[in-house]
């Protein structure tokens, strides 16, 4: 006989069944939470997250007290090539320690001669005057002959005082020249001034260089004061000269100037841009004194190569360090003319050891490296050094540097 279950008994059984299922779920959830707890704690410690109560983690609290270093650990020069792990931050830097670039003055380029806008010329005239008054401020720069704005940017990131762009002998076209001048000024954050040597009778190159913001123009093969005066007229706006105004070098309402009432930066150009006659012939040396006496000449440059050829002297002897007396006499006359009229000399150093002598003899703008020569020398010296190392193993593929057999 089967016993019957009444309504009350059925209700009791249902409650017990539901309660059993609920209890089983509670046990499962509790067990899972307990197993996951260690992982959650490790994750919280690794990320430095806040506690549920809103309190800051121990790491951040200690960092705020200054007891935890959140900066990147400096790498010693002795282990910089191997100890990469020491370059990692000791703690993840918190956003609350972030300082805007404008507040970190030590990151800013020291650019005392820059213009208000980096598409306008820096104050090369003031830079030359400061160097003439204090030789320790002599401008040091790089000559740029490779027609590549990528190379310009690389040079500019080293922040030389100037980049000398050679259009007379370099392969720069009009657009490359324009972009190279802008690249030099922007990638140096205004620290680098641009000096351009243009072909003597090339109005297009002269106009392009000036409109792009060149701070100095070198006029090659200058032989008389009259030539200098003619170029002054071409290089400067009125009333100083007759330079044509370009509508593409400013933005109405947005362009700014260091000078009051100068919305088109006419004063910037007239006050900042330098003219640098280059004397490189017998006639030029004869007229050096009158050339350097012209009002408006900011510096003067000597061209030894062309002078030697024009004078019929041996270029090879000068390159070998054994110049002829006639050449030294011409250099002396050139230097004396510059000194008499208090005009700085601009030129290049064939070696870094020449720099003290150049400063002593009146140079206030010195090219210390040439991109073509520097690149070639670096490649040549690296290859020669590498081949020298390889030569130690000559005749014995298993030899070690001291010549002893390499142990098997």
Structural features, described:
The protein has 408 residues and is α/β, with parallel strands linked by helices. Helices cover 43% and strands 10% of the residues. The chain contains 15 helices and eight strands. α6 links the parallel β3 and β4. The protein is flat, with a radius of gyration of 36 Å. 28% of the residues are buried.
Please sum up the structure shown.
Helices cover 43% and strands 10% of the residues. The chain is built from 15 helices and 8 strands. Helix 4 runs parallel beside helix 5 and helix 5 runs parallel beside helix 6.
- The CATH topology of one domain is given as TIM Barrel
User: CATH class of one domain, anyone?
Assistant: Alpha Beta
Largest sheet: 8 strands, parallel, barrel
CATH homologous superfamily heading of one domain: Phosphoenolpyruvate-binding domains
Coarse shape: flat
| Spatial strand order of the main sheet | 1-2-3-4-5-6-7-8
């Amino acid at each position: 006989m089967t016993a019957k279950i009444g309504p009350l008994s059925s209700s009791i059984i249902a409650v017990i069944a539901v309660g059993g299922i609920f209890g089983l779920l509670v046990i499962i959830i509790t067990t899972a939470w307990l197993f996951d707890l260690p992982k959650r704690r490790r994750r919280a410690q690794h990320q430095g997250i806040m506690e549920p109560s809103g309190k800051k983690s121990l790491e951040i609290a200690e960092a705020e007290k200054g007891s935890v270093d959140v900066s990147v650990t400096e790498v010693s020069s002795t282990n910089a090539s191997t100890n990469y792990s020491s370059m990692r931050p000791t703690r993840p830097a918190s956003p609350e320690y972030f300082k805007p670039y404008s507040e970190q003055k030590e990151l800013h380029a020291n650019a005392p001669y820059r213009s208000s806008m980096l598409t306008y010329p820096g104050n090369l005239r003031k830079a030359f005057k400061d160097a003439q008054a204090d030789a320790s401020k002599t401008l040091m720069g790089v000559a740029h002959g490779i027609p590549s704005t990528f190379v310009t940017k690389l040079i500019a990131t080293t922040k030389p005082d100037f980049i000398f762009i050679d259009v007379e002998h370099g392969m720069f076209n009009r657009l490359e020249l324009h972009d190279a001048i802008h690249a030099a000024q922007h990638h140096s954050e205004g620290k680098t001034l641009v000096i351009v040597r243009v072909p003597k009778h090339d109005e297009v190159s002269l106009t392009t260089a000036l409109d792009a913001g060149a701070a100095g123009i070198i006029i090659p093969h200058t032989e008389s004061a009259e030539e200098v005066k003619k170029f002054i007229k071409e290089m400067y706006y009125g009333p100083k000269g007759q330079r044509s105004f370009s509508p593409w070098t400013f933005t109405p309402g947005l362009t700014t100037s260091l000078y009051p009432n100068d919305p088109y930066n006419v004063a910037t150009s007239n006050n900042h841009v330098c003219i640098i006659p280059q004397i490189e012939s017998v006639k030029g040396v004869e007229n050096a004194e009158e050339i350097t006496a012209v009002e408006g000449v900011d510096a003067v440059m000597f061209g030894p190569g062309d002078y030697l050829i024009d004078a019929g002297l041996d270029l090879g002897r000068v390159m070998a360090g054994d110049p002829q007396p006639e050449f030294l006499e011409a250099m002396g006359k050139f230097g004396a003319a510059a000194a008499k009229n208090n005009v700085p000399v601009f030129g290049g150093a064939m070696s870094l050891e020449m720099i003290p002598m150049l400063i002593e003899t009146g140079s206030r703008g010195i090219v210390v490296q040439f991109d073509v020569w520097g690149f070639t020398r670096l490649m040549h010296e690296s290859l020669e050094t590498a081949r020298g190392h390889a030569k130690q193993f000559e005749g014995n593929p298993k030899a070690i540097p001291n010549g002893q057999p390499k142990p098997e």
